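lol ok so funny story. i was supposed to be doing the assay writeup but got distracted and ended up predicting the structure for this chain instead. priorities right. anyway since i did it might as well share w the group, maybe its usefull for someone
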Amino acid sequence: MRTSVQKPKNGAARAAWRRLHASGLGLILLLLMTGGLAVAELAPKPPSANMRKSGLAPLTDTTPGAHPTPASRGYEPPPPLPGRGSGSGFYISKTELITNAHVVAKCADIRDAQDRKLTLIAMDRETDLALLRAATPSSHWLRLAPPSRPMLLGSGVFVLGFPFYGELGRSVVVTRGVVSSRTGYLGRRANFGVDALMRPGSSGGPVLDSAGRVIGVAVSVLTTPGFNAETTPPNVNFAVGLDALTAFLTAAKVDFHASGEPVAKLSEGLPLSFERSVVPILCD
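and the output, tada:
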């Protein structure tokens, strides 16, 4: 699915827009759902002759189970899960889970890895958050950081999720990095930047601080057409912030858990209970 972005209204953003458009390359915001890559092209110009000669290809809509253009030449991706897209999600109570709206918005049927049905309860496309409910209670869930927690640049983060589910295995993948910016693309205050690696399928996974508390939800990366390794900005990734997540859960009347005290020291490893709190979201 392809969405369009309105031209920015403030002067600085308009100037940046013009520079991007003039370049003919255009940056793309890539929502990280395997088999359903949704993009917002900021400069939807056709590729130039130089781009075509270099082997770059514009990112196009994909169907469930499709793959992005591989960055390395000669790479043949393994067969995808037939007819099924996937993202990530995590429990914030015994029966409620959080994921991204773009992961589940067009799903006819939503299930977890054990093929148990998940029900869509609430969704906010503006913040790109969705609330799911499981019929079977979970014994494990994650706690949120307190709303008063300061967002410190350079502080450690851990991203949990299921990128390329089935191809990179079926267990949770953990990457680590730091908070790289307090806002998202074009200064969006509902998001913040991290440099922890994210890939298609990471969407909806939790972003944790070093004390094991949820501070955000993985949502997108910044990339360039064709997934060319020489032109893609490295690890420019975004998450939905804690304030937006807390407001969404409060509006949905969810009894979630927050902790002012450290829950775990993630630098020493991920507790097994954390692994069991994060699940793949499978979409048919």
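DSSP finds five helices and 15 strands in the chain. The CA atoms of residues 247 and 253 lie 10 Å apart.
back to the writeup now i swear
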